[in-house]
Design brief:
about 200 residues; alpha+beta; Ubiquitin-like (UB roll); DNA polymerase, domain 1; binds FE2/S2 (inorganic) cluster
């Protein structure tokens, strides 16, 4: 895996233990059916809900979650923060990119419970104030760095991280460190130009 791909992963976050929870939830009904000699449809009991405290876009949240919930589903379905998009849901397109403690991660592969005590920023919280755009958002507009716009929130979150990481020194470097964000519309030329415009305005 290249450094660029790694930067868009979930490094530095503790690993989850979702497998045990799921396994415990589905094994009990099957065992009961075998013991009685009667075929029983396997049912999945509702899993225990786990509390989560997290700060998102400077606002504190106290939630109670199914431990299998991804950060992306938590944002979109429970908090109505739909800026992060569900493209592949497998960590391969970057449409769901958010920042966790300043690092870019793909939220579809990040269990929500790993966000305990962390600072999360989504595209909704990127601008410095309401009515004002982040320099990267303005640059995407200036350079037509989008067509349908579906990948754009993830592209912008990754682009901001790319600059902050010091990986926007050249067009080639930008392409390498943005390689985890796919655009099916092929707006790559505008995206690279936008990052080159925004980088000096961000001090990068
Ligand atoms: S939706 Fe997360 S990487 Fe594609
Ligand atoms: S602008 Fe359409 S997928 Fe990127």
């Amino acid at each position: 895996m290249s450094d660029a791909e790694g930067d868009c992963g979930t490094q530095g976050l503790p690993h989850p233990n979702r497998r045990e929870v799921i396994a415990a939830g589905i094994s009990l009904p099957v065992v009961a059916g075998v013991a009685s000699g009667i075929a029983q449809p396997a049912s999945t009991p509702a899993p225990e809900r786990i509390p989560l405290r997290v700060t998102i876009n400077d606002a504190p949240y106290e939630l109670s979650l199914d431990p299998r919930t991804s950060a992306l589903d938590m944002l979109r379905e429970q908090l109505s923060l739909t800026g992060a998009k569900k493209g592949c849901d497998h960590g391969q397109c970057g449409a769901c990119t958010i920042h966790v403690d300043g690092r870019r991660v793909v939220s579809c592969l990040t269990p929500a419970l790993q966000l305990e005590g962390r600072q999360v920023v989504t595209i909704e919280g990127l601008a410095p104030s309401s009515g004002e755009l982040h320099p990267m958002q303005q640059a995407f507009i200036d350079h037509d760095g989008l067509q349908c716009g579906y990948c754009t929130p993830g592209q912008i979150m990754s682009a901001v991280a790319c600059v902050r990481e010091g990986h926007a020194g050249s067009a080639d470097q930008i392409r390498e460190y943005m390689s985890g964000n796919l655009c099916r519309c092929g707006a790559y030329a505008g995206i690279v130009a936008a990052i080159q415009q925004a980088a000096p305005r961000m001090g990068g």
